[in-house]
Amino acid sequence: MTRAVFDAHGQSILDLAGEFLVHCPRCSHCASVTVQSGQRFGPVRLLCVACGHLKDKDARQLVIREAVDWYFGLPLWLQTPCHGRVLWAYNLRHLTFLEAYVRAGLRQDARGEGSLRNGTLASRLPAWIKSAKNRDDVLCGLSRLHELLGTREL
Predict the structure, then answer these.
(1) What CA–CA distance (Å, rounded) separates 74 from 80?
(2) Which of 30, 61, 110, 141 ranks highest by number of CB atoms within 10 Å?
(3) Whole-angstrom Cα distance, residue 92 to residue 68?
(4) Is the C-alpha dihedral spanning 63, 69, 73, 79 positive or negative?
(5) Which residues on adjacent β-strands are paired with residue 43?
(6) pLDDT in tens, 111-147
């Protein structure tokens, strides 16, 4: 039996933050906050397809906090209680990353040349998510997040 291997390829949280799925401030359905230019600063759009709520913003700063988007500070759509804490993801790509990481029996965190040891997404995950003893609880939480999206886990 071979163990699943996870290779982070030096990904940082910035690589996954082009879109945030959030609770619409008008109707509470799932809306998206999208970075329009591909850059962290510049035009950002909040759009809810359920109610048509639309808000554009020229982002000159961002605030990185847990379980909210960086631009409007809206609560993330993908969050659930897990192991006495909140398990959250920005979007499907982030959720897929978390699931691959947690499922893996062997985790390799390759860093690019000159990058900081603690600069990768995998290195910044909380210890309770990384812990093998919490694997089943975290996988159940990730499954609940997939249900919120209407997707099935890998």
Answers:
(1) 15
(2) 141
(3) 15
(4) negative
(5) 58
(6) 555 555 566 788 889 999 999 999 999 999 999 999 9
pLDDT for residue 57 is more than 90? yes
To the nearest 10°, report the CA torsion of 78, 94, 92, 60.
80
| Token pair belonging to 152 | 């099935």
Query: Which 3-state string (H, E, C) describes the chain?
Result: CCCCEEECCCCCHHHHCCEEEEECCCCCCEEEEEECCCCCCEEEEEECCCCCCEEEEEECCCCCCCCECCCCCCEECEEEEECCEEEEECCHHHHHHHHHHHHCCEEECCCCCCCCCCCCHHHHCCHHHHCHHHHHHHHHHHHHHHHHHCCCCC
User: Which two three-digit tokens encode residue 86?
Assistant: 């909140």
Q: Within a 10 A sphere around the Cβ of 30, how many other Cβ atoms?
A: 18
pLDDT tens per residue, range 27-52: 999 999 999 887 778 899 999 999 99
